[in-house]
Structure formats: structure tokens, C-alpha cells
Design goal:
This protein is an alpha+beta fold. 44% of the residues lie in helices and 20% in strands. The chain has a single domain, classed as Arc Repressor Mutant, subunit A (Orthogonal Bundle), CATH 1.10.10.2910. The strands form 2 sheets. Strands 3-5-4 form a 3-stranded mixed sheet. The chain has a two-stranded antiparallel ribbon with strand order 1-2. A hairpin with a 2-residue loop joins strand 1 and strand 2. Helix 2 crosses helix 3. It is globular and about 30 Å long.
Length: 91
């Protein structure tokens, strides 16, 4: 997945290996999402990690609450308007 010109590898791992919903690693250029969750939770987690990457790369310095609020707002808006987020998982 390309985010602001950087290619991130998408990894899907079970919760027992992650212990969280998702994670973005800037140095390793990976986004890891918990594979045990429903499709909608995986999609919203992916949006969250994309926002985290953008925040870091653009030095926005958003606090975590703001990132969570953007995640929820974007997910609701995109999904309610028929935007298919599944291509994000194709790498």
C-alpha cells in the first residue's frame, strides 16, 4: 500500500500474535491488522493505521483521541456512501 509515496507491506496476523487491533511501523514500513476481527473492524483498523502513518510523515502531531475520531468519522462516511474499502487489503 502506498501512503504519501512510501510503500507499506500489509500483514494480517491473529490476535494471539498481536495483542491489539492494528499497528503501523514506520521504520519497517508495515501495517499489521488483526485477522481474527470482522471485516468492518479490520477496515476501520486499517483506516486508523493509515491516519497514524500520515500523521507521522506530515508531522501533524495529532493526539491519539483525534486519530480515533478521524478513523470513526472517515469509516462511517465512506461505508455509508458505498465506498468499498476491501482494495486496501490487496496491498
Amino acid at each position: 500500500m502506498n501512503i504519501l509515496g512510501m510503500n507499506y507491506e500489509l500483514l494480517l496476523l491473529p490476535y494471539r500474535k498481536m495483542k491489539k487491533e492494528g499497528e503501523m511501523d514506520y521504520l519497517a514500513q508495515t501495517i499489521t491488522i488483526c485477522s481474527d476481527n470482522s471485516k468492518s473492524i479490520q477496515e476501520t483498523s486499517m483506516l486508523h493505521e493509515i491516519i497514524e502513518a500520515i500523521d507521522l510523515m506530515l508531522e501533524l502531531k495529532l493526539d491519539h483521541d483525534k486519530i480515533c475520531q478521524l478513523e470513526v468519522g472517515l469509516y462511517q462516511t465512506l461505508s455509508a456512501n458505498g465506498v468499498d474499502l476491501s482494495p486496501l487489503f490487496r496491498g
